[in-house]
Structure formats: structure tokens, C-alpha cells
Amino acid sequence: MRTLLEIFRFEWRQQWRAPLFWIMALAFGALAFAVAGTDAVAIGGASGNVLRNAPMVIVRLVSAFTVLGMLACGVFVAGAALRDFDHDTAELMFSTPVRRGAYLGGRLAAGYAAAVAIMLAVALGVALGGAMPWIDPARIGPVDWRGYAWAYGVIVLPDMLFVAALLFLLATVTRSLLATYIGIIAFVVLLSLSGLLTRDINHHLVAAMLDPFGGRTLGIVTRYWAADELNHRLPAVEGLLLWNRVLWLGVSVVLAAMAFALFRTDREGLRLPHRRARAEPPLLAPATSASRITLPAARLAHDHRARLVQLRTLLAFDLGQVLRGVPFLVMLVFGLVNLVFALALSGEIYGTPTYPVTHAVLETVQGSFQWLLPIILAFYAGELTWRERDRHTAEVVDAFPLPDGLALMARLLALVTVVLAYLAIGDLVGIAWQLGHGYTRLQIGLYLATLALDATPFVLLAALMLFFQTLAGSKFLGYLLAIVWLVASLIGFPLLHFDHNLAIYGHASSVPYSDMNGFGHFLAGALWFDLYWGFAAAALLVAAALFHVRGTGQTWRERVREARARLRRPAVVALGLALAGFALTGAWIFYNTNVLNHYESSAEATRKRADYEKAYGKYKGLPQPRISVVRTQVDIDPYGRRLGIRGHYVLVNRHDRPIDTLHVNFDTDFTLKSLDFAPHETVSDDARLGYAIYRLKAPLAPGASMAFDFDIEYAPRGFTNEPSGQFLVANGSFFDSRVLPHFGYQTAMQLTDRGDRRKYGLPPDVPRMPRLGDAKARNDSYVSNDADWIDFQTTVSTAPDQIALAPGYLTRTWTANGRRYFTYVMDRPMLDFYSWLSARYAVKKDSYEGIAIEVYYDPDHAWNVDRMIQAAKDALAYYQAHFTPYQYRQLRILEFPNYRQFAQSFANTIPYSESLGFIADLHDPAKIDYVYYVTAHEVAHQWWAHQVIGADMQGSTMLSESLAQYSALMVMKHRYGPDQMRKFLKYELDKYLMSRATETVAEEPLARVENQQYIHYNKGSLVFYALQDYVGEDAFDAVLRRFLLDWQFRGPPYPDSQDFMDVLARSLDSKWKGLLDDLFWKITLFDNRISEASAVKLPDGRYRVTLKVHAGKVYVDGRGKETPAEPDVPVDIGVFAAPTGKGLDGKPLYLEKRLLPAGDSTITLTVAGVPAEAGIDPYNELIDRVSGDNRRAVTVQ
Amino acid sequence: MLTIRHLSKTYANGVHALRGIDLDIPQGMFGLLGPNGAGKSSLMRTIATLQDPDQGSIELDGVDLLADKNATRRLLGYLPQEFGVYPKESADATLDHFAVLKGVTARGERRELTEALLRQVNLWDVRKRKLGTYSGGMRQRFGIAQALIGSPKLVIVDEPTAGLDPEERNRFLNLLAEIGEKVVVILSTHIVADVTDLCQRMAIIGQGQVLLTGEPREAIRSLEGRVWRRTIDKAELDHYRARMTILSTRLAGGRTLLHVLADAAPEPGFEPVVPDLEDVYFGRLRAQATARAA
Lengths: 1197, 294
Hints:
By secondary structure, chain A is of the alpha+beta class. Helix content of chain A is about 50%, strand content about 15%.
């Protein structure tokens, strides 16, 4: 024991005395500080109402660092295990009478202690970060040390012990640091692999046990915790969590025991048998007497040809060393495994894959190497720069007559080759993936272009890393600089709102790719930035060559002197050219981004919104005229990227007082060429915020109308810092009525983040929607506050090879001045919500009972067009039969580029993103057909928005989004059956429960939803699906028809959710009142589960089934505080036969709703077939945080 | 003729490695003797362009070696004291690589040259083996092979025989001697016998200064009749040390053999010995130590 302590003490001193220890502690602490003290990286789930220092947030944050802690463990534990072998002190050590146990125990304990110490730096960083003065005090609770104690006790200490034991075993067995690191990487691969394989919500149990770090287990245990729980609770160490910890502590002990057992003190350690069979070196011939030296004459060449040969040789040598090395292969395999999994998951929506279109595959390739390549470059820049020093060949090589920059150039080329090799191999895997999926439109040209484009930032990074290494003068310092840079670019720059690409080395504007539009106009700017940073990289390399250390032990003074001596003509010329190129391209970029275009940092954009509210918030609700007629002449020049809109509004005063001022909002990206309306004077014209106030010479009398004519133009010049103008592109323009002038203060501009509001001097309380019952709010619909039902016509022109579209019916099309014109007329009043699209479309036409159905799509995206048409037909059929007639004669679906990912319903017109549905791969019938679902949902909006539109207040989106969800679910149910619905609803339930915790303001019950997506979509689906199941589909559809007939095309005043609930309450039996309260007016979480299910065969061949079930429910307030409640709603009890196929449910033998007492109860019933499964609320209709315990297999006795 | 004048170097840590070295090194083998830390390697590295002196000049036949380092490097063959290899590369691949870096870019010439060099250092049969598997002596021979690439005018070998067995040392020295017939070869060592056997001229360096320069034979001659020896008991050593200039002590058959510098027999029982270079070497070092102490 004494020796163990002495060994521990000695090793511990070795550890903490090393600079690496302090550097790691500092790096980990700083990272933790940045994560806890800023919003740059979101770990821990502190958002909205979850306090930044909530105990659970601390636990998640600190736990997240244990994976990084593996690195620390690798350094310290492997270092401790290998120290005597690395320093050749092994023979000294093992000739002492130290016992193996004491030796290994002391070393392991010291390495473990050092790694734990690093993790304490994390805690310190987290605690400090949370105490910074810039953090909104409302987001900070009292300091709660329980979180730290729990995190260390339950997660960090056992995790680090596991990693330490694993690494110690690897290190003692292999005796190689490299092998140990490879072991870590392999382990991480396996870990993420197991994570991917068990990611499905159905594999939670396995996932929870398989994670040695317990992070996934923790995630599963706290998956649905709401804000209040996260703020006050810590998970109990029981069940899954306890078993996980016990399992992996046990594994740790076994690993450590193996390390002790397998440890050998001899020189060789464990070796693979065949390695030992190497022949001994042959005996040399004895020295003969001195022979005459005759060496052939060899010319020493120093011309350019020779330099080229030398460069090639150096490159080949460097590459040979890199490519044959284990790290290269290991990291490549790691990257490829990562890639394959990313490919398998990319584009999945509701678990359904997309076709492997080339640009998506390329994005995945880039994504999977995005974090790997910087690490690889940093690593090899160090290895290559210092290889001669490390191998002690520097003195030989430095004395060769080579120019100073040649080796540097070779290293750069080697790194460039590494980058290209990685990306190219990734691309080959991508191609194989495409072919493996039967996808043959490979687009090799796109592969090559993207390869070049993706490689550029890495090449620039390689130059920077070489510069760091060379300048630092030591590998260690070089790595430190590299780490500082990587961390700064990951966290630091976003933190400082430092986002001009001119100022961050290697950055360029991103180049979004769309199948419809290619790289579009985004490419030019990016290339300029690449060129600009290319010059910077060249300058850095020249500087590196000047300061490159040759020979031994140079001080900085000597290096500066040497650099001056090296600054001769070629270097001066190269440096001068690079700097001149840098300055010129920089100036050109600045001219483009900041002079021709308006550059706005993200901070400035936020500030503008704050200023808007400060300056004009006082005009909120000011009476303004309403737009009643819209006539526009829209000229789209897609190839020249110009857009002109001449518009004519008729404005009506619908108030009972005259209106004497007009408050007009203009889109600041457009220039106002002319404005023409009644005599007026300009009171103010705020070009920055796009807000002008005009006083009418003659006030507009109540009921009177006036014309308002405008001519606006969007004509971008040059390029911008980040991609802009996605709405006007060569192929696939798509913009909507928001670009036109609008009247009155726009509440949509207001900041809704507490922190931002506080930072920019606004009252921190987030402005909320008007409360339900606010009669004044019924005057506006939620899509428009300056118009009601309008009269709409538009003429739109575009390039001759494109089709331009807008709501309304095509009445005339012609060609003039080399342009193609289309006039669209809507023959009935519609919402003030319209859009224009223009692209080179293929068109597929069909019809359903006199309604024309047309799909306008990219010719390469024909896969799902028929399915969309089918969905539209089925939807029209269901909605017309169950609701009201369709109000238009035509329904059009229009594809637009993937710069935006949604589908949206305008009057008789549905723009639909290319990435949402057009490329979905629906071959597997077991997968959810979301194309069908999305189409049905958008068609439903022709009723739920375009027939009935809710008032701009709480509950409004329930009337459109939730009812559109419901309608689509019914169409889906009739086509795909209830099994598919259960699958779909499981996703909805999961999304709803997970999103609750991230609520930033307050969760509202469905009838009071404030445009919260997880409520109106995900919860809406669940609630309405359950409701129709309880009251009957037909009964409920009758309610919907009643509501439609009552409110169709009406407003102002617009209907609100109370109106809907009134119809519902009136139409349904009063026995459903409790159910309606639970579903619509309260946030209700059910707790239904089944604990036992058994059956006995009766003499008559039937089965008597006995079930033990539990029923319960709680009400939750907006912040997650729970109150238990009596279950007063009947719940489905079901018994099922064995399923007939994979992924299918068994046929129900019994399915009825029963009112159960609170708590446990036993149910006995008799069924006719062999029972296989039974459950309480077996279809997961009610919202239940543990949905997996609603069914269980029946044991038949 | 290599001419070194006033060469001084102080390291960042304050070590005064070279203190005004003046040396004239003619064609042929030149031995540089000195104890560990005397400044031999600093001097060698400075000549090999691997570090800059604070002061002083180095010229080869009137050409300033410090002015254009790459020009100097073309004349140079250098085998540093500590010299590593790329353990996974073979000898011929590495030598070929080095030859390219040195400037032998014509493929045919290079192949002939590397073959000749490898044969010369007797590594031809093992040229395909990885350098990581070479013994110390084989590595040293590989080192000399690389130093001979491109017919250097100035060959610098720093402590080359340390760690070689007698057979290998012989072979190595023979090789050096041959080269030394045509060019300037500077051999730094702390093994006196190397210099005695090989060098026409030599210098002794201690604490960064030149203590003696000249021909070994001359130096030895200057001690003729002044070196005495006696075998004593170990316990008596302090007694003698206090009273006379002891050059060296060595154990022989369990007793101590004493070499003493004196103009006449210092005491009865001392007998004269024929001086060798080692006596010269220790004599100079003792003299310097005494001068410093005084």
C-alpha cells in the first residue's frame, strides 16, 4: 500500500507538472465557460423557461463533456501506463521489488485523478459561465450544487473510470499510444453506431443499456421533462439509469482486472505471434582493408527543373508517410462509417427516406468530413512540419541545400492531397450509395464542382495550420494555436456576432444548391471570397517560409534576423503579389457586399427589429384603411435577376372615423420608384426600417375608398456577404405578397426572445397574442391586418422559356418583347395572401369531378407527381363529401427550390418545396407516405384558411393548422388504415412531448394556442384524432361542416376558437364535456399502463383474459407544474390477435372504451380468438409520456 | 583551407558555448578533441549552417560560408552527433531521397551514386531493410554515406565512433581517412585514440576556447620526458593529488596507475613514460582548470 501511494504520488506529480495538463484544463474550462455563459453552443437544454443553471441543465452540460473527457483520459491514463516504456525507465522500474498491483494501481489511480481534475475544470467553467453579468437574471435560479454533485457522482466519476480502465487496458496490452488512440476512435465509432442502430423510439431499452456514458440513458429518462421538472428535479437513480450504471461499473472493474492480469514487464509486451518470426539481421562481411574510394561524379543541380524534382520527391515522401500511416486510415474509416450512417439518415422525414439525389449526397459527404478534416489537417500539419525534428533527422536535412519554402510547399501539397483524397473517397462512397439504391442520375460534373468548392476552405485551413506550426517553432505550441483557432471559429466568432466573411479567415458565403436552380447566382460571391482568402493563405505561407526554423535552438531574435536575411527578391515579390491580390480582391468584395449591397450583421438585424418596435410600437392598432382590390403588373427577369412590380390598391376606410394618416411599410430590399395616391404630405420616411408616414390632405371618410398606386423594383447588383435574394433566381423564383407595401404597425416584426429584448432595451416580457375573448382582436384575420377579402388580378411576365404562376385562373397568355405574359384573375374574394412563381416547369394535368388538378414540377423530379395528384383527388373527395364544396375550379401544386423547406397553401395554388416530397422515396409501403399526407394537409387549407380564417388571437391556428392536420389524417386513414396512423401519431406524440420542454414563453392548451407549432401541428393531430375516435368520425365531421357553413368567407369579425368550441359543445352529447375540457382547455397528460395480461382457454374455445391496468392523469400549467386529477374519461381497452405481418398490428379481438377508476384495477373479459397482445389506450390516442407501457403480450396458460 | 576567426556564441539560456574561436583547418583530417560540453558540437553546427554565431567569421578558401547558407550547404557533408532515421523507410530509399534533396536530381546519376555509396559503407546487402532495424554501427555508416553525397568539399563528422564496436570503428575510420585525402574533414570526438590514429592536425577545445592547435606528434613531443607514472594504493590518491599535477588516474589490477606531469621525477618510485596524445589532452584541460581556478 505504501508503494502504491508512492507510485501514485510520483505519477500524479508527473501529470500536473506537465504543461499539457494545464493547457487541457484551461481548454476544457474555457469551453465549458463558453457553453454555459453564452448562447453560441446549445448543450443542456436551457431554453425558454428552463433556467440556465437548472440542476438538470448542469447535469446534461457536464455529462456532455465526458465524451470529450475521453481525450483527457487518453492523455493521462495512457501516459501513465506507458511512461516507463516511453522513457526507457521500464527496466529500472521492473528490477525493483515493486509489486505489479501497486505499480499498476498507482499509475491507473494517478491517471484517473488527472482526468477527473480536468473534469473539475469543466465544473468550474460551467459555474463561472453561469455567473456572468450579461446573462438575463430572469434565466438564472439560485445556485444549486445538487446538480454538480449528481453529475459527478452518477455520470462523470463512473464514466471516467470506465474510460480510464478501457484505455489502461489498451495501453498496457499494446504498449503504443497510437494504438490506444486508435482504440478510442474505434470505440467512438462503435458507440455512435450503437446509437444509430437504437435511435428509433422503439429501441429505447437497448439504447439505454448500451451507452457506457449513460448520456443516452439520461436522455431517455428525462426525454419529456417539462421546464418545471428540469428546473427542480434530478432523476432518481433507479430503473434503467441504475442498471446502466451498475452494468458499466462492472465492465470497468473487469477491464481493469484484465489490464492487471495481462500486464507483462518484459520488453516486448504482448506481441502478435507472427511478428516475432522476423529474421535476425544477416551477419556482415568482415571489414576488408581500406579499399580505394571511387564515387561516381554526381552533379548537384539547383535550377528550376531540379526544384521541381525535389518538390515532387518531398511530396511523394510526405504523402507516403501520411498515407501509409495508421492514423490516416483510421480517421478515414471513421469518416466513412460516419458518412454511411449519415447517408442512411439524410433527408428522412417521419422515418421515410428520400432519393439519393446528387446534391444531397454531396451535402452529406461534406457534413461528415466537416469536423473530421480540420482535426486531420491540424494533426498532419504538426506531424509533417516536425517530422524531421521528431525523427532526429533535422540536422541532416536542414544542412541540405534546399530553398527554405520548398519543404513547406510540399507539406501544403500533401495536405491538399489528403483533403482531396478524403472528399474523393467520400464521393466514391456516395456514388456507390446512389448506384446501390438504383439511382443512376449521377451528375459527375456536379461531383467535381462540389469537390473543388468543398475542398477550398480545407485547403485554406491547411495553409493556416502550417503557418501556425512553422511560426510557433514547436509542435506543441503549434497544436495549441490550432486548437485555439478551431475553438474560436466554432464558438468565439459567432459569439461576437462577427460574421463578415471578409474578417474571418477562410470563410466564404455559402452556396446553396438546388436541383432546379443549380448553384445559381450564389457561386460568384463565394468564389471571390475563396480567391481573397487564397491570397491571404499565400501571404501566410511566404511568412511561414521566412520564419521557418532551420537548424537548432533559434531564439525569436535570431528568427527575425534570419527572416530579414531571407527576405530577398523572390520572397519580396511573392509576398507583395499576395498582399496586393489580397487587398484588391478585398476591396472588390467590400465594394460588392457593403457598397453595392447593404451589409447587415445578425446583431444589426436584431437591433433593427428592436428599433422598429421602439419607434413605431405606439402606432399599434391605429386605424388604417383596408386593401380591398389588388391589381399588379409583375415583371420577373429570372436570368437578369430583376423584379419590377407595379401595383394598384383600392383602399377602403372601414372604420367609423375619418383616417388622415397612412402608415406604410416597405420592403427595404426593394426600391420605391414611384408612389401615387391622394394629395398628401410626407410626415416621415424611415428608409432604414422601411416605415413611412403620410398625412392625407383630405382625410379618407368612413366608407370611402381611394387608389394607392406604387412601382417597386428589386434589382440586386454584385454579390452579398451571405446568400441573398433566394426568392428571385434563374430557375424557381418564388415570392409572396409580403414584398408589397402594407399598412400599419406590423407586430410580426417584434422581437420574441427575452434575452434579445432585454439586450436592446425593450421590456423583456415577450409580447403575446391577444387573449381569447378580446373582441377588438376579431377585426383582423391572422394572415393580414390591413385587408379582409380582396379582389385579385395579376399580370406576370417572365423569360420566354418559363411559366409564371399566381393565384387565380389563367385568362390570357401571350408573348411580347421576347417575354412571356400571363394574366391570372381570381373570380371571387380571397385572402390578402398571394404569391408568384416562375420556373422551367414540366406540367402534369388531371382532373377530379370537374376540378382541374395540375402539378408544375422540375422535369427531373417526376417520381411523386402521380402520388400528389392521387392525394389531391382523395382529399378533394373526402373534404367535399364531409365538409363543403371546394370553392375553386382548379388546384395547382408548384415546385420551388429547396432554399426553403415547406409547402404552403394559397388560393387554388400550393407551392411545394423540392426537398419536401418531390424527392421522397416511397417504395417501402411500411414507411409513412408523408407526400400524401403533406398534399392532403395543404389541400385541406383550401377549407381551413381559405374558407374559414381565424381571428388574429389565441387559438387561431387551431382552426387552420390543427384542422388541416385532422383532415389529412382522415384522408390518410381511409387510404392506409389505422396501423399507419398509429405509426404517424407516435411521431406526433414524441415531437409534442419533446418540444414542450423547449417552450420559451408558456405552453397553452390547444384552444388557446399562440401559433406554437408543436401544439397546433403535433398536439392538434393527437387531439382531433382522439376526438373523432371518441365521438365518431361522421359526428365530428358534421360539426366541422356546421362550423364551415357558419363562418365560410366571413369576417371581420373573424371567428375564434371559442366559436368553434361552441359549435362543438352544442353539437356533441354533453357526456363529452369532460373530454373536451381535457383535450382543448387544459394541458392534460395521461398515465395509462398495463402491468399484467394473462389468458385462460375456456371449455367453449374462447379465452378469458385478465388485465391489470393503471389509469391516471395530471393537469399541467404553462410552465410544466403538475396537479393530479381524477381520470373521468373512458379509455380504450383492447385485446389483439397475433399480427399477420412485420410492422403490422394484430386484429383487435376486443376494443371498447371503459371508464376506469383512478389507479390500479383489474379487468376480466372474454374473447373469441387467441389473444396475443392487450393494452390500455393501445393506439396511443391520449397524450401519455410513457407510451411504450400501454401494451403488453398476453401470457396464455 | 577553412579559416575560423573570433567565433562566439552564447545561447539563450546563458551558456557561453564558443568564446572567440580561431582556427585554421587545412585539407585533410582535422581532429577536434574536447570533453563533453566543451563546445565541439556548437562549433560543428555553426560551420554546418545550422546555427548562427553571435560574432566571427568562417571562410573556406576565402569564401564567406555564413553569407549564403545554401551555397555553403552545397559544399557540405555533415554527419551530426545525434542522428535519427525514418524507421519505416529502407536505406536505399532514404539515401535516394536525401540525394534528391541535396541536388542530385538526375535519376541515372543518382542511382549510380547511391549504389556506390552503399557499397562503400558496406550496406549494399542490407539496403532494402528498414532503417529502424539497423544497429548503431550500421546507422553511423548510413550517416557517413549520406554525408558523402555530392562530393562535398567540407565534411563534418561529430562524435561518429561513439557506440561502435572495434570492428565497425576501424572500418569507419578507414573510410574517413580516405576521404580526408582530398577535402577538409573535421572529426569531432572525445576519444583521443581516434585523433592519434588518423589526424594530421588537431585542436583541443575546452569551455568554448581553443586550448591547443597543431599536429598531434608535435604536441606529444612537447611532453617528452615530462610524464611520469607510478602505481599506488587508492587510499594514497589524495596525498598525491595535493602535491603534483596529475594527468590521469586509471585502475590497473586493483591498484591505481597515476600519470603525473613534472619536469623531473617528482618522487622516488615514479618512472618516466613515453607521452601520448591523451597526456597532452589531459595536460591542457588541467592547465585550463588551474588557470580558471586561479
